[in-house]
Amino acid sequence: MKSYLTPLGPKADKDTVRRHNLSLVLRAVRDEGDAGEATRAGVSARVGLTRAAVSSLVEQLIDSGFLTESGKTFSGQAGRPGTALKVARTGPAGLGVEVNIDYVSVCVVDLAGTGRVRQTEHLDNRGAPPDEVLARAARIAARTLDSAREQDLYPVGATLALPGLVSGGSVRQAPNLGWNQVPAESLFAEALSGLRTGDAPLPVRSENEANLAALAELWFGGLDPVRTFLYLTGEIGVGGALVLDGRLLRGAHGFAGEIGHVVVDPAGPECRCGSRGCLEQYAGQSALLRAAGVEESGGGAAGVLELERRAQAGDARAVAAVGDAGRMLGRVLSGAVNLFDPDAVVLGGIYRGLMPWLSAHADEELTGRVVSGLWSGGSGRLRASSVAGDAARGAAALVVQDVLADPVAYARPAAFLGD
Amino acid sequence: MKSYLTPLGPKADKDTVRRHNLSLVLRAVRDEGDAGEATRAGVSARVGLTRAAVSSLVEQLIDSGFLTESGKTFSGQAGRPGTALKVARTGPAGLGVEVNIDYVSVCVVDLAGTGRVRQTEHLDNRGAPPDEVLARAARIAARTLDSAREQDLYPVGATLALPGLVSGGSVRQAPNLGWNQVPAESLFAEALSGLRTGDAPLPVRSENEANLAALAELWFGGLDPVRTFLYLTGEIGVGGALVLDGRLLRGAHGFAGEIGHVVVDPAGPECRCGSRGCLEQYAGQSALLRAAGVEESGGGAAGVLELERRAQAGDARAVAAVGDAGRMLGRVLSGAVNLFDPDAVVLGGIYRGLMPWLSAHADEELTGRVVSGLWSGGSGRLRASSVAGDAARGAAALVVQDVLADPVAYARPAAFLGD
């Protein structure tokens, strides 16, 4: 009988405790800031450390540029007024680089999680070799970093968001890009270093783009109190992510969430993944536009806008195509819900704008096929993503999470040396 | 931006630390016992406590009946020989009660995880009202407890294993039993108390049977190092469970794993769950026997044996029926694997014996449809469950887990009072 025997770790020493507490205080200020003004007293109550300890930690965080302090604030309660604390809007930040099928989008997020710089270029990445695509993304990233510097924002790391199976720094497979075994992290990092010869190299990591969009939705999208959900993003491919109690469910190898390749009809059309009849072939952007009779020549984004316009105008073929896609989505989602039992399903990407013609059909399938009965019509569990659910922002915010989890690791070298 | 801000818990006091360490030592002896003989020195090395501390904790565990000590053991290493420690084979134990469609199986598991008493009755539970079914299960459980007492085993709790959606002590829905909103825990507990008037009432909890079979497979089935897997059990229904890194994935409401109701064909035969074309209608026991032309009149278990016999003899209809079921399983499993990315899929129940005619067809679907490419033929990731993967044993072992996690809570009142 195997157990969950937890080996005793080394005892936490003073330095470890201090680093942990600096993180606690920094995150508490960030979270209080969401609600209103953060004060030393409020932080003390929230994290359970004494007022004196919090004050000392706050001073260190101010000295090293993670927190700023503004004028007096009056809490409305008895006692001395405190000064308002905020996480710094300058200094350490995160860089997110989404390389998708027909666009590259780069953004910089500050410590508060706010997107501060964004550059997006629409282009078709399907034709080009991976190293060229990543070199182009690096050029956009370098320009974005220049803009960030003008705002005194200095990203301390970058996350690549990629539409495929990502593991160990490489893209194992990205069917719609035609990538196989591409060492994306190192290709991008080298290209970016080559463009920023004076600067220290930026640590780069990579992650599936739907995973990052789901995290962005969780962190910024007002999903609360939902913490367990399935996220779907309709693009040229159909990406998916599972979030279980506020954490990404990556599976055994990091490849979980590939709902776009769940089979709808075993004898259906060939899919780029090598299988047949995958959901993507029924509810992906190309399939949808084709079924609706919208020419894709104007580019994907233009085609989707045209589809929305026609559906809005009551064009029968457009409405029927979106309805059919909704039914297929609902059918596959009902299976996923039976398996995973989420609190909600969030639809992003092209589905966001198509919800009026899509959701009732998907809901009908969910109502009839989810065995728990919790998904009957009008349950409100199927919802559109917010604008926040965007992979580049999630990618950048993932870097910020690291900073918040251990600010000492990202401080200017001398900042935390003195007491 | 929401964070994973962890509030500081209260500081662990001496008593909490001692209870924790008693559990650590008890589990270490159990785990060492799997490999060979456990000694104080071995336990000390494993848990990272001093030899003196371990000796003191061991004495307490021996005094209170959780550990036993046998004669000298020679480690083959330099130094004094130690005595061999074992978890007690008498005393606290767990009771597991599986109430399934056509049988009730009850077992008692000792602290080492070994099944010590088992009673199984084959009967059709579909016709009877839930309170009668549970009263019958209680009678079998009471007889099992009598047998256990003769071996000096005293279950400290019971787990009900039920083929349906189980949450908060009730069965929300068990389509194949025809149960809806049945307060199974209290019905069973009351019936059992009525049969054991002299004894203290046994705490009862309930859980989905596939979840418990999956745990039994994890703990006793030799799956190691696989810790993330999908478990399927073919019975009259098709049950499923997801295990993520050694823990059950229950989902937001406890209803995860319902793979039997993933849709195969939206226009397929009606399912007892109210939907159409669920996997159960293609790969469940009744569907399989029907397709193979095996009369079910001899009872389910007899029918499955007859099916195996015919397949073994090369009966074309039997072989084709099992092959078709394998293809359907493979198709649905490929979707589940794309979503959840497990390390393995384990097939239990009737599928165990049918693997020779089933697995190649399922493998073919998995090879073609899993986008990661990790499931190509001969990957060995699709496997039969061991005999260990049984819900009643998992149910009983869940109680034992509680005892191992905090032995003090299950000791005779005076046992841990002195130092």
Automatic annotation (TrEMBL), chains A, B:
Pfam families per record: ROK
Keyword check for Transferase: yes
GO molecular function: kinase activity
Keywords: Kinase, Transferase
CDD domains: ASKHA_ATPase_ROK_BsXylR-like (cd24076)
Protein name (record): NBD/HSP70 family sugar kinase
Protein source organism: Streptomyces clavifer
SUPFAM superfamilies: Actin-like ATPase domain, Winged helix' DNA-binding domain
Family: Belongs to the ROK (NagC/XylR) family.
UniProt superkingdom: Bacteria
Family annotation (Gene3D superfamilies): 3.30.420.40, Winged helix-like DNA-binding domain superfamily/Winged helix DNA-binding domain
Coiled coil location: none
